Amino acid sequence: MIEALQFEFMRNAIIAGCFASLICGIIGSFVVVNRLVFLAGGIAHAAFGGIGIAFFFGIPYVLGTLGFSLLAAMIMTAVVLTNKHRADTFIGILWAVGMATGIILLDMTPGYNVNLMSYLFGSILAVPASDIIWMVAIGIVAVLSAIFFYRDLLAISYDDEFARLRGVPVNLIYFLYIGLVAVSIVIIIRVVGLILVIALLTIPPYIAEKYCRTLGQMMALSTVLAVVFNISGLWLAFTYNLTSGATIILVAAAGFFLSMIGDAIFLKKRTAS
Hints:
single chain; mainly alpha; ABC transporter involved in vitamin B12 uptake, BtuC; 12 helices; globular
């Protein structure tokens, strides 16, 4: 791995992976604790519509995808807050509509010659400096929001009805954080792709949740795990010439299954004693 650091694209990839890990550790913990994984998945796939809009109208990728994803996220959040029993159906519809819109718009784009695989499965080794700046900015926002809203996040995550009785602006914080989820997904798409982004958002927090007593500890451990998965996946991808995004997710999946096996062995020993 040391010799790989002589290449600028590899250094950029490591920096991007670390900041993506910070974002996933904080935002992903909120998603996992509040059981919003399906909603986050809907946003990720709906984001493809934004990619189609960006290329069809010739506007910057980040602006087009971010605008469409935020709109989809706000609609999904409104449905979740007002009609939880039918939220999964509505999210599934927006998920499909976003993907279909993106595909049709790309079909209609004159002279379309973009490598679609880089958006579906990521291309962290080709992340430009401009995207790293975006990741740094979103990472700072995620940290500051977690610090500023920490008590409210705790209340919402573990008993939103009690939080409402205490006067916590539950709806406002939900809209704010789902907005952050949308922004995070758009930025991280360049690292692991829109198909795999949910794994990076959910696997590290899921593992961390079992070993942490507080939400803050969970966010911190999630970030560390995500960094380990990203750097390990990058090293394997560079060494064996593999697709970086998919390799990172498989490393994370291996960590997930190892934690499950460890839990099963520990539980068996505890039961036997």
